[in-house]
Design brief:
With about 325 residues, the chain is an all-alpha fold. The chain has one domain (about 35-320). The protein contains 15 helices and no strands. The protein has helices spanning about 10-50, 60-65, 75-80, 85-90, 100-110, 115-125, 130-145, 170-205, 210-215, 215-220, 230-240, 240-250, 260-270, 275-280, 290-320. Helix 3 (about 75-80) packs antiparallel against helix 4, helix 7 crosses helix 13 (about 260-270) and helix 13 packs antiparallel against helix 15.
Length: about 325
């Protein structure tokens, strides 16, 4: 006589969560590629053509506001368009003091890859223009405040280096772009898949609340609700690209109100990849404190100001509405 053994609900739930995570991960990966690859190619093409190096004068008036020399416009512009790695590459070959590099690092960590990340945030709950304006404003104000505590006006020593730009043949440029983006897309796929599989397993096992409770003090500090816990962790640790893909899945499920999504985006827009990005600049000998604390405080204040503005506008609407 055959004895039927009861099904192991635990492993069934884990398998269910795994399959759901793979399905959502693949869909989110394709969604990210549709945005990332065209914008990445256009940005790389602008840099290859050297066109972006001819418009840095537009940013030079801003340099005096943030206590930086006009030469700083080029690395900041490259960072705004192509990302932190490009900004660092332009910064290290030019003569800057450590205090000037610190201010530039703070600016670039808050305000980089605005075209790509602005579009991604636009597709996942926050208007691109709002995302860009808040991040740019936060970068400028944060640097202006930090400049009071540093000495960015001291003359920089001469740093030897070849700052000339040499245009590669187009086919070499195309090959380099393809190879670099192949690595990037594989990395994106692995991270998105891992996050969504992990998230779905936590959901089916009912463990999601326990994980969020651990980070509740941080969420309250940032002015966010517990419902944004996993999404904040994703964006803060892994970056906007990966965070946005997960946020889209949560929005589809209707788990978050529009205001919560906006506050989440403002927070992780200013303070994302908060481990990887500072480490890149620490390798240049910059101070740990200035790379971590000002950006964190900026994220807290922006969300608080946004929430206060929403509260005031609602009160005014209730007061004057018929």
């Amino acid at each position: 006589m055959e004895i039927k053994r009861p099904a192991n609900n635990y492993y069934e739930q884990v398998n269910k969560g795994f399959l759901l995570g793979v399905k959502k991960g693949w869909g989110s990966f394709l969604w990210v590629l549709k945005i990332l690859l065209p914008v990445s190619f256009l940005t790389a093409l602008l840099e290859w053509s050297e066109w972006i190096y001819k418009i840095d004068f537009l940013f030079q008036p801003l340099m005096s506001w943030i206590s930086l020399p006009p030469l700083a416009a080029l690395p900041l512009l490259v960072g705004i368009i192509s990302g932190i790695y490009g900004g660092i590459g332009a910064m290290v070959v030019l003569p800057f003091t450590k205090d000037q590099m610190t201010l530039m690092a703070i600016f670039m960590m808050i305000c980089h890859s605005l075209i790509q990340e602005g579009m991604i945030q636009g597709k996942s709950g926050l208007h691109p223009l709002k995302a860009i304006l808040f991040r740019t404003g936060a970068a400028v104000i944060t640097v202006m405040v930090v400049a009071f505590f540093l000495d960015p006006t001291s003359p920089a020593p001469y740093t030897p280096g070849n700052t000339a730009t040499f245009s590669l043949p187009f086919w070499v440029f195309l090959r380099n772009w393809f190879l670099s983006n192949l690595y990037l897309t594989l990395k994106i796929f692995g991270i998105i898949l891992s996050i969504l599989v992990f998230l779905e397993i936590l959901k089916v096992l009912g463990w999601i609340r326990q994980v969020v409770k651990i980070f509740s003090p941080f969420l309250r500090l940032f002015g966010l609700s517990q419902g944004t816990g996993i999404l904040w962790i994703t964006g803060a640790f892994f970056g906007l690209i990966y965070g946005a893909a997960v946020i889209v899945e949560e929005i589809k499920g209707g788990h978050l109100a529009k205001e919560e999504v906006e506050k989440l985006h403002l927070s992780i827009g200013i303070n994302h990849s908060f481990i990887e990005d500072p480490i890149l600049f620490m390798a240049l000998g910059l101070n740990f404190f200035w790379l971590f604390i000002p950006r964190l405080l900026a994220a807290v204040l922006v969300v608080r100001i946004f929430s206060f503005g929403k509260f005031i506008s609602q009160k005014l609407f209730q007061t004057y509405s018929p």
